[in-house]
From TrEMBL, chain A:
This is TldD/PmbA family protein. The keyword Protease applies. Keywords: Hydrolase, Metalloprotease, Protease. It comes from Kribbella qitaiheensis. Belongs to the peptidase U62 family. GO terms for biological process: proteolysis. One of its GO terms (molecular function) is metallopeptidase activity. It holds the Pfam family PmbA_TldD_3rd.
TrEMBL record, chain B:
GO terms for biological process: proteolysis. Residues 230-463 form the Metalloprotease TldD/E C-terminal domain. This is TldD/PmbA family protein. It comes from Kribbella qitaiheensis. One of its GO terms (molecular function) is metallopeptidase activity. Gene3D superfamilies: PmbA/TldD superfamily.
Amino acid sequence: MPDVDASFLALPRHELADAALQRAKDLGATYAEFRLERIRSESISLRDSVLESAYDDEDLGLAVRVIHDGTWGFAAGVALTTDEAVRVAEQAVNLAQVSRPINTEPIELADEPIYDDVTWVSSYEIDPLSLSRAEKVALLTDYSDRLLNADGVTHVTVQVSSVNECKFYANSEGTSTTQQRVRIGPALQATAVDPETGRFDSMRTLAPPAGRGWEYLTGTGWNWDEELAQLPGWLAEKMAAPSVEAGRYDVVVDPSNLWLTIHESIGHATELDHALGYEANYAGTSFATIDKLNSLTYGSPIMHVTGDRTAENGLSTVGYDDEGVAGQQWDLVKDGILVGYQLDRRMAEVNKDVLGTNRSNGCAYADSAGHVPIQRMANISLQPAADGPSTEELISRVQNGIYIVGDKSWSIDMQRYNFQFTGQRFYKITDGKLDGQLRDVAYQATTTDFWGSMEAVGGPATYVLGGALNCGKAQPPQSGAVSHGCPSALFRDVRILNTTQEAGR
Amino acid sequence: MTTAIQLTPQDTIERALKLAAAEGAQGCVVLVAETSSANLRWANNTLTTNGAMRGSSVTVIATVGAGEGTAAGVVGRSSATDASLGEIVSAAVAAARESGPAEDARPLVDGTVGPGWDDEADETDVSVYESFAPALGEALTRAGKESRWLYGFADHGVTTLYVGSSAGLRLRQTLKRGYVTANGKSSDLSQSAWVGAATRDFTDIDPLAIDAELTRRLSWATRTVSVEAGRHPTVLTPAAVADLMTHMYRKLDGREAHEGRSVFSKPAGGSRIGEALSPQPVRFWSDPMLGGLETFPFVAAQSSGGSQSVFDNGLTLTATDWIRGGKLENLMQSRFTAELTGAPAVTPAIGNYALSVDGATGSVDDLVAGLDHGLLVTCLWYIRIVDPQTLLLTGLTRDGVYLVENGEVTGAVNNFRFNESPVDILARFTKAGATVPSFSREWGDEFSRTATPPLLVPDYNMSSVSQAN
C-alpha cells in the first residue's frame, strides 16, 4: 500500500493546527478542530480521439471550526502560515458570535475515542497524477479509436477525472489524523447519428468511478477490452430497436443501474440530516423520519442494506471522518425494516435516546478545506443473497419484462418518494429470455412500493460496486464521491414509461 | 519554518508571464481569482451551519509549438507564492509539451491594460449580515411562536478576476453575488412554501418580509385539493421558468448542434439556426451589461469545449441573441467552433440570460386572473435530461402548487413529477407576463443571473403524483 505523499507530510501540519486550536481556545471556544487539505485533481477529455481539454488542479487550504458559546463558527483560508491559521481561528469565533442570536440549540457532540497522530491510506496501486500526461492520453486515444473506428459510431467522447486527496485533521480533544485517498472516474461514450432521420442516441461504458488508481484503466477491476469491443454493436442494436410500449412490467435491474436507485431512494433517505430537516430548504427531507426507526417497512423482507465507511475501493471509504470518528459498518435496512441512519457527532448526541446509541457512525465530511463538514453519505449497499441466483436465473423467472442495464437519467422528489430513472440499455424479456433491445424506456415508482416489489436478489457473483463522483448536497453546495454495491434484482409490476410519448410525440 | 511570500494578483501574473517566456513558452495566459464569501444556514428555526471563506486560485495556460500547430497546457492551483509560482508555470509548460496540437488553437487575444488593473481585490465577510442576522433571529423566534418552521440559506460572495497574457492583455473585473432562499412549513409539516431572491449586498433583503410572504403562501393551503396526473393548464412563475430555461441555455452548444447530437440539430445535418422555435415573439439573450445581472464582460475559460476555448481568454463579450422573434439566431461558439461550423458569428457563452416575449406585460397574478381552471406552480426541483433529442426534462414541483379556479387561487394541490421540454414549451405557451429578475430554485446557487417572465402552458405534462410535501 502506498504511503502518504511526502510533500504533504512536509507541510507544517502540526504547527498550523497548534496555532489555530490554541487561538480558538484562548478566545473561549469549548471545542475546536483544524483541517489542512490538499486535493490534486486532473480532468482529461477527448473528442473524437483528439485531446480537447486537460486541466491539472490543486486546491490547498486550511479550515477551523469551533463551538463558542454553544454555537458553531467556521472559517477557511489558503495561506499556510501560522498567522493565517490564527486569523482563520479568530474569524471562526467571530462568526460564531455573529450567529449566536440565530442559534436556539446549544451544540453538543457525541463522545469518540482519541486517535493520536494516526495515518490511513486508501487502497490503490498507481497514483494517476504521478504518470505523464502523454502516457494517459495515449491510452485514452487508443480506447477512443477502437470505438470511433467501429461501424455505426459517429462520435466518441472520453472523460477521465482523477483525484489525490490528502487531509490532516486535529481537534481540541487530542485526536489527529493524516489520510490520503485516490479515486478515478473514467467514461467513454459513443454516439450514433442517423443521417436520414436525424435521430441520434448514445451509449456509455459502464465502468463505475472507483477508489482505485490508474491500474483501473489498464485492466485491474474492469475488462476494457471486452466492453469496448461490444459497445458499438450494442449501440447499433439500440438505434434499430423498437420503441417500448408503456405499461407495467416485471423488471430485472442490473447493478450498473440499481446502484443509482439505491443512492437516491435509500442513501439520501437514511441521512439523518435529511430526516431531521437540515436539508429541507435544499435537497429536501425524508419520508424515513426518525419516529419510524425500527417500524417502517422499507421494502420486501429480503432487503438488507448497509452503511459502510470501510469497503475496499469505496469512494466514501475513509479511516476517520472530518470529526475524528473511525470508519464503521452498520445496518440501515434489515429484513425490509428501517433500522439505522447515517450520523455525525451532533446528531448522534441529540438523538441518542431514539437511536439507542450515542456514537456517530462517521458520516461527517467536507469536500475541501473551503467547506464545513456536513453529514455525508457512507457507501450504502444492498447485500446479495448468500446463495442467491445468477442474473440469468432472475431473467428466467420473467414472462414479459425488461432487463435494465447502465444508468443515465435520474430524479427523485424532495422526500424521496417518487423517482424516475432511465438507463443505457433495455432488453425485452420474453418467456424468461432476452429478446432484443428496446428504446425510449424510463421506470417510475414510489420508493417503498418499488423496494416492496423486490422478489429476489442475486447472489454474490452478481454483486458490483457502482458509484458517483459528484453527489451534490448542502448549502453552499458540496460535491461528494460515494460507492454503492448491489446484486442484480428482480422487481414485479413496475411502471414503464415511453419517453417519446412523454415528450408528446 | 520558512514562510513563503503571498504575491499580489498583478505580481503573480507579471512574474508568471516572465517565467513562461523563460521556459520557452510561445504564449501564456494567467487567470487569478480572489474570492471571499460568508454564509448562514438555518433549519427547524435555528442555526445549523455557517462559514466565512477566503480563497485564491491561479490558472496558467501555457502554449508551445507542436508540429505545425500549437499545444496548450493548463494548470490551476489554489494560490501561488513566490516559492510555488515557478513550479506552476513549469508544470503548465510541461503539460503543453506533452499534448498534441490543439484543434482550437488561435492567436492569443490582443489587448491593453483595462480599467482598475492596479486595484486590490474586493472582499466580503460576515459583516455583510450585521443587520440581516438579528432580523433573521427575530423571524425565527416569531415563526416558533406562531408554530411555523423556517429553513433557509443566505450566501454572499465577491470574486475579483484578473487576466493577463503575453499578448498584452491586462483585465480586472469584480463580481458580487448574493442570494437567500427560504422554506417555510406548517407545524405538522404537511404544507410548504418557498421564497428565493438574488441580491448584491443584503441591504435589500428583509428576513421578516420573507417570513411574511411564506406565511401568506402557507395560508393558501387552508383548502387542500387532490389533482390527478395529466396535462393541465399551468402558470409557471418566473423562478420555475428559470428552472427550465437554464437547461436550454446550457444546451446552446454550437458544435454539438452542428454534429447532429442536440435538440438544436437539423435532421438533414447542421444546426437549426434560422428556424422558428416559437410562434410567439420570443427573445432569449445574454448580455454582460444586462442591468442588475452584470457578469464578466470577457471570456475566462479554464478548459476548452464546444462553446469556449482557452485560446479565447480575454475575448470581449457582447450582447448576443440566442433566439429573436421566436427564431433561433445563434448558438454558443468559440473562434474555433464558429469557423468549424460556419456559424455567422463568434458567440461564446455568457454568464447570464434573459427570456422575454415582445409586448408581454403583467405578473404571475395577472396570468392567474386570466385562467379559468388550472395550476399555479411556484418552483421546480431535481430536473434532469431524459432525452437529449427533444431536450425532454423530468423533475418535480415542490413547495407550492396551487389550484386556480375562475382566476383565483383556491387551494393547495399535491405535488407532481413532470416530463417536459423547455424547447417545446416555447412552441406551446399561450400567454406570458413581463420579464423580471428571477432566481431558479434548483440552479440559482450556480447560475443566479437570470430574468424570465411567468408563462401559461396550456398542457403541461404532469406525469405522476408525488406524495412529497
